[in-house]
Design brief:
Helix content is 35%, strand content 24%. The chain is of the alpha/beta class and 164 residues long. It has a seven-stranded mixed beta sheet. It is globular and about 35 Å long.
Length: 164
Protein backbone atom coordinates (compact mmCIF):
# COMPACT_ATOMS: atom_id res chain seq x y z
CA UNK A 1 0.00 0.00 0.00
CA UNK A 2 2.85 2.40 0.85
CA UNK A 3 4.41 1.75 -2.57
CA UNK A 4 1.16 2.64 -4.34
CA UNK A 5 0.79 5.88 -2.40
CA UNK A 6 4.43 6.81 -3.00
CA UNK A 7 4.15 6.07 -6.72
CA UNK A 8 0.98 8.17 -6.96
CA UNK A 9 2.73 11.11 -5.30
CA UNK A 10 5.67 10.81 -7.70
CA UNK A 11 3.39 10.74 -10.74
CA UNK A 12 1.38 13.71 -9.48
CA UNK A 13 4.62 15.59 -8.95
CA UNK A 14 5.73 14.89 -12.52
CA UNK A 15 2.46 16.20 -13.89
CA UNK A 16 2.78 19.40 -11.89
CA UNK A 17 6.13 20.09 -13.59
CA UNK A 18 4.59 20.07 -17.07
CA UNK A 19 4.46 23.40 -18.84
CA UNK A 20 0.99 24.84 -19.17
CA UNK A 21 -0.49 27.97 -20.74
CA UNK A 22 0.80 30.98 -18.83
CA UNK A 23 4.16 29.41 -17.94
CA UNK A 24 7.48 30.65 -19.29
CA UNK A 25 9.30 28.23 -21.56
CA UNK A 26 13.03 27.76 -21.24
CA UNK A 27 14.95 29.63 -23.91
CA UNK A 28 18.41 28.91 -25.27
CA UNK A 29 17.83 25.24 -26.05
CA UNK A 30 19.94 24.81 -29.17
CA UNK A 31 19.22 21.70 -31.21
CA UNK A 32 19.62 20.64 -34.82
CA UNK A 33 16.96 21.87 -37.23
CA UNK A 34 16.54 20.37 -40.69
CA UNK A 35 15.49 23.36 -42.78
CA UNK A 36 13.17 23.39 -45.79
CA UNK A 37 15.99 24.60 -48.05
CA UNK A 38 17.97 21.41 -47.34
CA UNK A 39 20.38 22.96 -44.86
CA UNK A 40 20.86 22.03 -41.24
CA UNK A 41 21.18 24.61 -38.47
CA UNK A 42 21.78 24.41 -34.76
CA UNK A 43 19.61 27.06 -33.18
CA UNK A 44 17.28 27.80 -30.28
CA UNK A 45 14.07 25.83 -30.64
CA UNK A 46 12.11 29.06 -30.06
CA UNK A 47 13.82 30.93 -32.90
CA UNK A 48 11.15 32.44 -35.14
CA UNK A 49 11.27 33.57 -38.71
CA UNK A 50 11.78 37.30 -39.17
CA UNK A 51 8.82 39.38 -38.06
CA UNK A 52 6.86 36.53 -36.47
CA UNK A 53 5.65 36.67 -32.88
CA UNK A 54 4.95 32.98 -32.18
CA UNK A 55 6.55 29.56 -32.34
CA UNK A 56 4.21 26.60 -32.74
CA UNK A 57 5.77 23.28 -31.72
CA UNK A 58 4.35 19.85 -32.46
CA UNK A 59 6.11 17.12 -30.44
CA UNK A 60 5.73 13.75 -32.12
CA UNK A 61 7.09 10.26 -32.44
CA UNK A 62 7.34 8.40 -35.72
CA UNK A 63 5.75 5.34 -34.10
CA UNK A 64 2.74 7.19 -32.65
CA UNK A 65 -0.53 6.68 -34.61
CA UNK A 66 -2.11 9.83 -33.12
CA UNK A 67 0.96 11.82 -34.19
CA UNK A 68 0.62 10.56 -37.74
CA UNK A 69 -3.07 11.53 -37.66
CA UNK A 70 -2.13 15.05 -36.49
CA UNK A 71 0.57 15.66 -39.09
CA UNK A 72 -1.64 16.65 -42.05
CA UNK A 73 -3.67 18.92 -39.77
CA UNK A 74 -0.53 20.60 -38.41
CA UNK A 75 0.86 21.02 -41.93
CA UNK A 76 -2.46 22.52 -43.06
CA UNK A 77 -2.40 25.02 -40.19
CA UNK A 78 1.20 25.93 -41.00
CA UNK A 79 0.27 26.76 -44.58
CA UNK A 80 -2.81 28.72 -43.55
CA UNK A 81 -1.01 30.70 -40.83
CA UNK A 82 2.50 30.88 -42.31
CA UNK A 83 2.79 34.64 -41.91
CA UNK A 84 1.66 34.54 -38.29
CA UNK A 85 3.99 32.01 -36.66
CA UNK A 86 7.00 29.76 -37.12
CA UNK A 87 5.82 26.15 -37.11
CA UNK A 88 8.17 23.31 -36.16
CA UNK A 89 7.90 19.55 -35.86
CA UNK A 90 9.90 18.29 -32.86
CA UNK A 91 10.81 14.63 -33.37
CA UNK A 92 11.58 12.89 -30.12
CA UNK A 93 12.44 9.36 -31.24
CA UNK A 94 15.63 8.22 -29.52
CA UNK A 95 17.37 7.16 -32.75
CA UNK A 96 18.50 10.12 -34.84
CA UNK A 97 18.65 7.98 -37.98
CA UNK A 98 14.98 7.08 -37.57
CA UNK A 99 14.08 10.79 -37.35
CA UNK A 100 16.20 11.65 -40.38
CA UNK A 101 14.76 8.79 -42.43
CA UNK A 102 11.22 9.81 -41.55
CA UNK A 103 12.00 13.41 -42.48
CA UNK A 104 13.13 12.25 -45.92
CA UNK A 105 9.72 10.64 -46.51
CA UNK A 106 7.64 13.69 -45.52
CA UNK A 107 9.83 16.74 -46.24
CA UNK A 108 8.07 17.57 -49.50
CA UNK A 109 4.79 18.13 -47.62
CA UNK A 110 5.86 21.16 -45.56
CA UNK A 111 8.25 24.12 -45.58
CA UNK A 112 9.07 24.63 -41.91
CA UNK A 113 11.91 23.39 -39.67
CA UNK A 114 12.03 19.82 -38.44
CA UNK A 115 13.75 19.61 -35.06
CA UNK A 116 15.84 16.59 -34.13
CA UNK A 117 15.29 16.05 -30.40
CA UNK A 118 16.56 12.49 -30.13
CA UNK A 119 18.47 13.53 -26.98
CA UNK A 120 15.19 14.96 -25.68
CA UNK A 121 16.57 18.28 -24.48
CA UNK A 122 13.52 20.17 -25.75
CA UNK A 123 11.12 17.43 -24.68
CA UNK A 124 12.45 17.57 -21.13
CA UNK A 125 12.43 21.37 -21.00
CA UNK A 126 8.76 21.40 -22.02
CA UNK A 127 8.02 18.38 -19.77
CA UNK A 128 6.26 16.55 -22.60
CA UNK A 129 4.88 13.27 -21.31
CA UNK A 130 2.58 12.27 -24.19
CA UNK A 131 2.54 12.56 -27.94
CA UNK A 132 1.38 14.39 -29.83
CA UNK A 133 1.69 17.54 -27.73
CA UNK A 134 1.51 21.03 -29.21
CA UNK A 135 2.56 24.38 -27.79
CA UNK A 136 2.25 27.96 -28.96
CA UNK A 137 4.92 30.17 -27.40
CA UNK A 138 5.02 33.96 -27.82
CA UNK A 139 8.14 36.02 -28.51
CA UNK A 140 8.64 36.54 -24.76
CA UNK A 141 8.77 32.80 -24.11
CA UNK A 142 5.29 32.62 -22.59
CA UNK A 143 3.27 29.50 -23.38
CA UNK A 144 -0.10 30.74 -24.62
CA UNK A 145 -1.52 27.36 -25.68
CA UNK A 146 -0.93 23.71 -24.94
CA UNK A 147 -2.74 20.74 -26.44
CA UNK A 148 -2.24 17.00 -25.99
CA UNK A 149 -3.67 14.50 -28.46
CA UNK A 150 -5.09 14.82 -31.94
CA UNK A 151 -6.63 18.02 -33.21
CA UNK A 152 -10.37 18.20 -33.69
CA UNK A 153 -11.95 21.10 -35.62
CA UNK A 154 -12.48 23.13 -32.42
CA UNK A 155 -8.76 22.80 -31.52
CA UNK A 156 -7.76 23.99 -34.96
CA UNK A 157 -10.10 26.97 -34.68
CA UNK A 158 -8.64 27.86 -31.29
CA UNK A 159 -5.17 27.94 -32.84
CA UNK A 160 -6.43 30.11 -35.71
CA UNK A 161 -8.04 32.51 -33.24
CA UNK A 162 -4.89 32.76 -31.10
CA UNK A 163 -2.66 33.50 -34.08
CA UNK A 164 -4.88 36.10 -35.79
Amino acid sequence: MKKIILMSLVLCGLNSMALEAGDLAQTGISVNHLMADGTEKTQDVLTTEKGQKYTVLEFFSTTCPACMENQPKFISLSKELSGKATFKFVGLDRREKQLRDFYQTIKSEFSFPYVLDNNRFVTKAFAVSATPTSFIVDQNGKVIFKHEGTFDPADMQTIRDLLK
